[in-house]
Structure formats: structure tokens, C-alpha cells
Design goal:
The protein has 362 residues and is mainly β. It is 14% helix and 36% strand. The strands form three sheets. Strands 1, 2, 3, 4, 5, 6, 7, 11, 12, 16, 17, 18 and 19 form a 13-stranded mixed beta sheet that branches. Strands 8-10-9 form a three-stranded mixed beta sheet, with helices on one face.
């Protein structure tokens, strides 16, 4: 499988699409609840390309299924839609980088807190208000109707980018048993939010990367390398969470265990003791489970595989078996190097990492 299975178009300000030719390499990177990015290298021998000339252009990518040929009857299967963020020209190459609609939310900063946050409305309503206030016209019809979870009234989103504010809300939502993913639509400029599937739910859809018993049926992904990721940090049994500005300090458990191994977390996004308690409980819950992650390399038979979805393995290598969630995925295709790499596990994206990422966007 290679970029010959792709059709990459540039879209100008009038909406006119142009098929890009002379593709030398293509790469795609996506992590859970963050913008996805593509980098396309085009042949530029003979001068400046005129099919992509400025950052106002958009990029859309169509992918063909295995064992199919391009024809007028080939069904459209969009796998990416985004705006050009940079163009680099060399005497031989035109290197285009584009990011999806999530990235647009990183260009604007919230001057006031959303009214829906102040009024104690559902978290989905807050996210919709943040997106709806953007000067960019971004479709939000696919945002979940409600989460049935409300944010703390003391949460302050002022000064955060729209993306950072939404990621802060998601980080707090995902402390609860119900977890969500936030992503860009692939056929147009729009956003979507939905509940994450449960790896232990046998009725949930899953891609296949291995079967027991073995069959000759084709797989969605063919692993070639599996590396179990080990967390070398000590297992902790006591957590203290603080927000020194608000005078919040919560320790879980309240009665110290024998042979205490304690860790302190200070975070300005914690706004009340109830939130701090949930935060600490989630950190303790992750102990042991946080070690169950794998980096997998191989070749996909479809470009539809994305983060937040499930994929099933049956491999003795690395002890990887059963349904796993995809946390991040990247493709890279060139004449000398074709591969797909993903990180999978049964634990949602680490809470602390998500919070720290959101804070870095301030």
C-alpha cells in the first residue's frame, strides 16, 4: 500500500479543486483530541508550482480501497480535509504542510468565559459555544448533543485558545467513566465529538490486526513490529493534588497506607475539592494500567484507521492481544520508506499529559 492509493487535491478560495501530481512523499500524523497534520512533498523541478500558491489553499485527500482501481465508479472516501499551514520551496521540491479544522481553534483566544459555563449548562453546550464564537466558519453539527456532565463553576478559560479551552474541558470530562474524543471531519471543514468506544464492549466496531483461530481472511492492519512500552516510574499509592492560588489541597487516600509512595501534583486548572478528588482517584486508578501500551508498526490495508477507534490483535509478540484503543497513528510513504506506526492500549490517553498539553497552548 502506498500513496498511489491516494488522490490529493488543492482547493483554492473559490472552491475549485486541482489534483496534485508529482507526489514524492506523503506523511500523516494524528493524536487523540489534537489536530491531525499532513506533509506532502511534490516535484518542483522547473520552477514554482502554480497549483498551491499560498496558505489560503485547502487540502483534501481521497483514498482508494485495496484491490480497487481508480475509475469514475470508484466511491469517494475522504480521509483528510484541512488548510495549508506552510509551503517550502526548494529547487527540486515543494513541501506542503496542512492541518485539519481543529487547528483553526488554536488561532483565537477567549477574552471572557462562555455564558454556558457561567450558567452551569452541559459540557457539550460549552464546547459548541466556544466553537460557534470563532471567526472561522466551522461546522459543528456532529458535536454530541449532551454529555450529561457539567463543569465546575469555578473553571476559568479566559486567556486560553479555543482549542486549549476545549481540551481542558475534555481532560476533565475524561476523568469520568464516560470518555469522549474531539476530532475534525474529513470531507469538509467541520468538527465532531462523540463518546469513545469501550474496548471491553463486544458489540463495538473494531478493526482487525489478527485473528484466532487463524484464517486467510484479509486484515485491516498487518503488524510487522510490536514493542511494549514500559513505564519506569515507581507505582504510587498516595496522591496529593493542589491549586495553591485557590488554597485547594486534597490527598487520596485520606488514611496513609503502609510503605507510602506519594506524589504531589500542582495544577491551576483544578478549581474545587471535588474536582481535585476525582483527579487524584484517576491517577491512582491508572497505576499498573498505564504500563499497558504498545507501539506497533506495520502496513494498513485501509487509510480509515484513526485515533479513538478500536483495533484487535492476536500476537504473542509483546503480549499484545484483544481489543485496544488507538491513541496516536502516523503514516509515511515514499519510494524508500513505507510504514504505519500507532500507539495502542486499553487505557484512555493519559490525563496528566492532556492537561499539560492544554496548558502549553495558553
Amino acid at each position: 500500500m502506498s500513496y498511489s492509493r491516494l488522490k490529493i487535491y488543492s482547493v483554492d478560495g473559490s472552491g475549485t479543486s486541482t489534483l496534485l501530481t508529482g507526489i514524492k512523499s506523503f506523511s500523516y500524523t494524528q493524536s487523540l483530541n489534537t489536530p491531525s497534520t499532513v506533509t506532502i512533498t511534490l516535484n518542483n523541478i522547473g520552477g514554482i508550482r502554480n497549483d498551491v500558491t499560498d496558505r489560503q489553499f485547502k487540502i483534501k485527500i481521497d483514498a482508494i480501497a485495496p484491490k480497487m482501481e481508480w475509475s469514475s465508479a470508484t466511491p469517494v472516501n475522504w480521509i483528510f480535509f484541512g488548510r495549508v499551514t506552510s509551503i517550502e520551496l526548494t529547487p527540486t521540491d515543494c513541501i506542503i504542510t496542512a492541518s485539519d479544522s481543529l487547528n483553526l481553534l488554536s488561532y483565537e483566544v477567549l477574552a471572557i468565559n462562555p455564558t454556558s459555563l457561567t450558567n452551569g449548562e452541559d459540557s457539550a453546550s460549552i464546547i459548541k459555544e466556544i466553537i460557534g464564537g470563532s471567526s472561522y466558519s466551522i461546522g459543528l453539527e456532529k458535536i454530541i448533543g449532551e454529555t450529561k456532565i457539567r463543569m465546575s463553576s469555578g473553571l476559568n478559560l479566559v486567556g486560553k485558545t479555543r482549542l486549549s479551552a476545549i481540551q481542558t474541558i475534555l481532560s476533565q470530562l475524561n476523568v469520568s467513566p464516560k470518555k469522549f474524543r474531539f476530532f475534525a471531519t474529513k470531507d469538509a471543514e467541520g468538527l465532531a465529538m462523540e463518546e469513545l468506544p469501550d474496548p471491553f464492549d463486544s458489540t463495538a466496531f473494531s478493526y482487525i490486526a489478527g485473528r484466532v483461530p487463524y484464517t486467510t481472511a484479509p486484515l485491516d492492519f498487518y503488524p510487522s513490529m510490536i514493542d511494549r512500552v514500559e513505564d519506569n516510574e515507581d507505582i504510587i499509592n498516595m496522591v496529593t493534588v493542589k491549586n495553591e492560588e485557590l488554597g485547594i489541597s486534597v490527598t487520596i487516600p485520606t488514611t496513609p497506607p503502609s510503605n507510602v509512595i506519594q506524589k504531589l501534583y500542582t495544577d491551576s486548572t483544578i478549581t474545587d475539592e471535588s474536582q481535585a478528588r476525582l483527579f487524584a482517584q484517576q491517577i491512582l486508578k491508572q497505576q499498573g494500567m498505564s504500563k499497558m501500551k504498545w507501539i506497533v508498526e506495520g502496513m494498513p490495508s485501509t487509510f480509515d484507521i484513526t485515533t479513538g477507534e478500536l483495533i484487535e490483535f492476536q500476537s504473542k509478540e509483546g503480549g499484545l492481544s484483544g481489543r485496544q484503543m488507538i491513541f496516536n497513528i502516523s503514516y509515511s510513504f515514499s519510494p524508500s520508506n513505507n510504514f504505519c506506526r500507532m500507539t495502542v492500549g486499553r487505557q484512555n490517553a493519559d490525563l496528566l499529559t492532556t492537561l499539560q498539553f492544554a496548558n502549553r497552548l495558553n
